[in-house]
C-alpha cells in the first residue's frame, strides 16, 4: 500500500491542511491499495485562490500557446498510457484491455482535439457593426465521477484550458490515483502554476466547499441526477454558470427491418462494457413483439459470454445496489434469463451479466438508472409504441436505433428525446457534442460545443 501526500495547488504538491486520509480499495480483491489526503475547506480555498490569481495571465495567453500546452499534455498522457491503464485497473477494476483502449486511450484523443481547437477556434468575430469576443468564463470547479476517472477530468479540463479558464478538479474518492497522474502530466506539459489545481476529498466536504466557493464562476459536474440537482440549486442561488452531465436510461430501439442478431449482440456489449458503469449505456432494449422471443434468446446467449470478461463494480455499496435492482425487477414480474443477484465470485465486488425479459415500461428497472451489467428487454407493438416507451423516462442522455434502411433509423432517432443516438452501431466520435435532454443534464461536452461551455461573449458596437 502506498500513502500519497499533498494536493496539487499553484503548481506544486502541498501538504494537506488536515490529517484525514481516504483509503483507495481494489474492487477486485477488496484490499486497500493506497491512501490519499482528504481535502478540507482550507485546501479547497487555497486551490480556488490559486486559480483566481492565475486567471488574468492565462486568459491573456495567446490561443496558440494554450494549444501548445495542450499538445504537450496530450503527449504526456500518451507516454504514460501503460501506467494510466494499470492504475485504472487497480482502483476501478476495469479489465486491462478496456483500461488500455478506453480509459487511457480516449483521453489522449480528447486532449489532442482541444489542442487543435484552441488553435483554430475563432475567439473574435464581426457581426454587423459589432465586434464579438468569446472570453473565458473564469474559474471552473470540476467535480468528476469514478466510472471513467481520467476521461471525465480531461473532458472538463482540456476545454477549460483551451478557453483560457483556470480550474480546480475534485475527483471521485473511489478513483483518485489516476487524477494524480494527470496533475503530474499537466505539470510536465508546462502549464503555468495555478492554472490547474487538484484537491482530493469527500464530496460532502471538498465537493460541497468547491460548489459553494464565491470565487468559482462555473460548476461542471458529472454524476447522479440527485447530486446534480443539489449542485444546480447551489449554482442558481449564487448565479453561477453550470454544466451537468447526469444519469441515463437509454433505449436501444431495434426496428423490425434491422439485422436482429447484430443489433442484439452490439447492444449487449454496450451494456456490459465497463461492467455496466456507463451513464450512456443502452440499458433498455426495445424489440417488436414478432421478434421478441428470438431477441431474448440472443441476448441471454450473448450475456453468458461476458461472465469472466467484465470487471467488478467499484464498491460494495454499488454491488449491493445493483443486486437489489435485479431482485426488485424479478419481484415486479420481470423474467430472469441470464445472470442474477447471486455473487459470482467469493471475493471482489462482482455482479453477473444479467438480462431481464418481460420488462414493462412501468417497472422500476425500466425507469431508474441501475448502473451495472443489467439489460432490460421490452416489447413494443409498433413504432409509435416504441417511441412512447423510448421517451417514457425522466432521462434523455443517449440511445441507439437499428433498421435495415438508414433513413428509417434516422427518422425514428430524430423523434427521440435524447442528446445522442447511434445509428446502426455508429462509432464513437470524440468531436461530437455529448450531453442530455430532460433530467440527464445541462450543457454539452466534447468538441467545439464542449469548448463553448467555458466561454462567455462580449460585444462592442461601432
From TrEMBL:
Give the range the annotation lists for the signal sequence. Answer: none
* Aldehyde dehydrogenase domain sequence ranges: 13-459
Instruction: Please give the superkingdom of this protein's source.
Output: Bacteria
Q: Which UniProt keywords apply?
A: Oxidoreductase
Residues at the catalytic site: 245
Under InterPro entries, the record lists: Ald_DH/histidinol_DH (IPR016161), Ald_DH_C (IPR016163), Ald_DH_CS_GLU (IPR029510), Ald_DH_N (IPR016162), Aldehyde_DH_dom (IPR015590)
Q: Which Gene3D superfamilies match?
A: Aldehyde Dehydrogenase, Chain A, domain 1 (3.40.605.10), Aldehyde Dehydrogenase, Chain A, domain 2 (3.40.309.10)
Question: Do the record's keywords include Oxidoreductase?
Answer: yes
CDD domains, per this entry? ALDH_CddD_SSP0762
Indicate yes or no for the key word Oxidoreductase. Answer: yes
**Which family is this protein grouped under?**
Belongs to the aldehyde dehydrogenase family.
Q: What name is this protein filed under?
A: Aldehyde dehydrogenase family protein
Q: Tell me which species this is from.
A: Streptomyces griseoincarnatus
Amino acid at each position: 500500500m502506498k500513502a500519497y501526500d499533498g494536493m496539487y495547488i499553484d503548481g506544486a504538491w502541498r501538504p494537506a491542511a488536515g490529517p484525514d486520509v481516504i483509503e483507495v480499495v481494489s474492487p477486485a480483491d477488496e484490499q486497500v491499495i493506497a491512501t490519499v489526503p482528504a481535502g478540507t475547506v482550507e485546501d479547497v480555498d487555497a486551490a480556488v485562490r490559486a486559480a483566481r490569481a492565475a486567471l488574468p495571465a492565462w486568459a491573456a495567453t495567446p490561443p496558440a500557446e494554450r494549444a501548445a500546452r495542450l499538445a504537450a499534455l496530450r503527449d504526456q498522457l500518451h507516454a504514460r498510457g501503460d501506467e494510466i491503464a494499470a492504475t485504472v485497473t487497480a482502483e476501478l477494476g476495469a479489465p486491462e484491455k478496456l483500461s488500455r483502449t478506453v480509459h487511457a486511450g480516449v483521453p489522449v484523443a480528447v486532449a489532442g482535439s482541444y489542442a487543435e481547437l484552441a488553435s483554430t477556434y475563432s475567439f473574435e468575430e464581426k457581426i454587423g457593426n459589432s465586434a464579438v469576443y468569446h472570453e473565458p468564463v473564469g474559474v471552473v470547479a470540476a467535480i468528476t465521477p469514478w466510472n471513467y476517472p481520467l476521461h471525465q477530468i480531461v473532458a472538463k479540463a482540456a476545454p477549460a484550458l483551451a478557453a483560457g479558464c483556470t480550474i480546480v478538479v475534485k475527483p471521485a474518492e473511489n478513483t483518485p490515483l489516476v487524477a494524480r497522474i494527470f496533475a503530474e502530466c499537466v505539470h510536465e506539459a508546462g502549464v503555468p502554476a495555478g492554472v490547474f489545481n487538484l484537491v482530493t476529498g469527500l464530496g460532502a466536504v471538498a465537493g460541497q466547499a468547491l460548489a459553494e466557493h464565491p470565487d468559482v464562476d462555473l460548476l461542471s459536474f458529472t454524476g447522479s441526477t440527485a447530486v446534480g440537482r443539489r449542485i444546480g440549486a447551489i449554482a442558481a442561488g449564487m448565479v453561477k454558470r453550470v454544466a451537468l452531465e447526469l444519469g441515463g436510461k437509454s433505449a436501444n430501439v431495434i426496428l423490425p427491418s434491422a439485422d436482429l442478431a447484430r443489433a442484439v449482440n452490439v447492444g449487449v456489449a454496450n451494456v456490459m462494457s465497463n461492467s455496466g458503469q456507463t451513464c450512456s449505456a443502452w440499458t433498455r432494449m426495445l424489440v417488436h413483439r414478432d421478434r421478441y422471443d428470438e431477441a431474448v434468446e440472443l441476448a441471454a446467449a450473448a450475456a453468458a459470454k461476458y461472465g469472466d470478461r467484465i470487471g467488478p463494480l467499484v464498491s460494495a455499496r454499488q454491488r449491493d445496489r445493483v443486486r437489489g435492482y435485479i431482485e426488485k425487477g424479478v419481484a415486479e414480474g420481470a423474467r430472469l434469463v441470464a445472470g442474477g443477484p447471486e455473487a459470482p465470485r467469493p471475493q471482489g465486488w462482482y455482479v453477473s451479466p444479467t438480462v431481464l425479459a418481460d420488462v414493462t415500461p412501468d417497472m422500476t428497472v425500466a425507469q431508474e438508472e441501475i448502473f451495472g451489467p443489467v439489460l432490460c428487454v421490452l416489447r413494443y407493438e409498433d413504432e409509435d409504441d416504441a417511441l412512447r416507451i423510448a421517451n417514457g423516462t425522466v432521462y434523455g442522455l443517449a440511445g441507439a436505433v437499428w433498421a435495415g434502411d438508414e433513413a428509417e433509423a434516422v427518422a425514428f432517432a430524430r423523434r427521440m428525446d435524447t442528446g445522442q443516438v447511434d445509428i446502426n452501431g455508429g462509432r464513437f466520435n470524440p468531436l461530437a457534442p455529448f450531453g442530455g435532454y430532460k433530467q440527464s443534464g445541462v450543457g454539452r461536452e466534447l468538441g467545439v460545443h464542449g469548448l463553448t461551455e467555458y466561454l462567455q461573449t462580449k460585444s462592442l458596437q461601432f
